[in-house]
Amino acid sequence: MLRNALRHRHCLVSLFFVGVLSIILACGVIASHVRTFSVKRDTAVLIGTSLPELRTSVALLRSTVEAETLFARQARSAREEQAAAYIFPSGSPVPRAVLTLEQLSLALRDSTNGQFSLGSLTFSSKTENKGTHKILDGTAVMRGSFQDVARLLGVLSIGGDMMVRDALAPGVEEQFLRAIGTDQPLALRAAQDFLYLDLLEYALSPDLVEQGALSGVSDALRPTLRQMLLQGGLAEVRTALGPVAERLKERNVWPIPLIQVTSLSREGSEFRVGLGLLSR
């Protein structure tokens, strides 16, 4: 009898401890579920509060992209109209070409202390029809060093370029924007404004313009971008257009007409340059 009572007592004690252990485990499971629910609830609240801001950001981003696309189209249209009026006119381009070459030669003369001069400039009265355009043959006689003549011809070589992006080699613009977008997307707008800047305005103060355009990118990337621009075509703009940019702006002869160099010969300090003046 006593043994049965003791055995019954041990069973009750064991069941009691098993029940307590089960309750502890159940509390742990409930606490885990509570924590999981709390995390999910906080996440849902965060998403609920952030979603309107995200929607607003997306809307602003879309608006910005649309505005920049429209800006690019308007800038391109304005440049095309300017190019049609000055670079590739439907009327006679001779008066503007003569004025441009005279002002270029005067600017070079001033920068060389009178060592450079334009001896004579003539254009044929007969227009040659090339189908898509017309061309007038001309001849310019220049006196000075080869470097000075090369500077003047360098200006003529960018006569069809209106904006900074026009002077860049193929692929440089995309590479430039991609590098900035990866480093600092918020700096893309300033970079795009820079690419659509008038080439003469850039030539007037290239260092200052580049500094403003690249102010939003990291210090580590800035030298790489400047080297990319210089090697991509802007070094030639600095060398050729920089020394005469102020005079071209003052005399209102920018943009310059589209003039091709067809031949070049030298006799002592005198250079005879064959020209082709284009028009529609």
Question: How would you describe the overall organization of this protein?
Answer:
This protein is α+β, with helices and mostly antiparallel strands and 280 residues long. It contains nine helices and five strands. It has helices at 2-87, 94-111, 146-157, 172-183, 188-195, 199-204, 206-213, 222-241, 245-250, and strands at 117-123, 128-129, 134-143, 259-267, 270-279. Strands 1, 2, 3, 4 and 5 form a five-stranded antiparallel sheet that branches. The protein starts with a helix and ends with a strand.
List the helices and strands and how they pair.
Layout: H1 2-87, H2 94-111, E1 117-123, E2 128-129, E3 134-143, H3 146-157, H4 172-183, H5 188-195, H6 199-204, H7 206-213, H8 222-241, H9 245-250, E4 259-267, E5 270-279
Antiparallel strand pairs: 1-3, 2-3, 3-5, 4-5
Helix pairs in contact: 3-8, 4-5, 5-7
In summary, what is this structure?
The chain is of the alpha+beta class.
Would you count the extended β strands for me?
5
Mean pLDDT: 78
Uncertain ranges: 57-61, 70-79
Number of helices: 9
**Would you tell me the structural class of the helices and strands?**
alpha+beta
Q: What composes the largest sheet? A: 5 strands, antiparallel
State the helical fraction: 55-70%
Assembly state: single chain
Order of helices and strands: HHEEEHHHHHHHEE
Query: How would you describe the shape?
Result: globular
Rg over CA atoms: 37 Å
Percentage of residues in strands: 5-15%
Distance between the termini: 126 Å
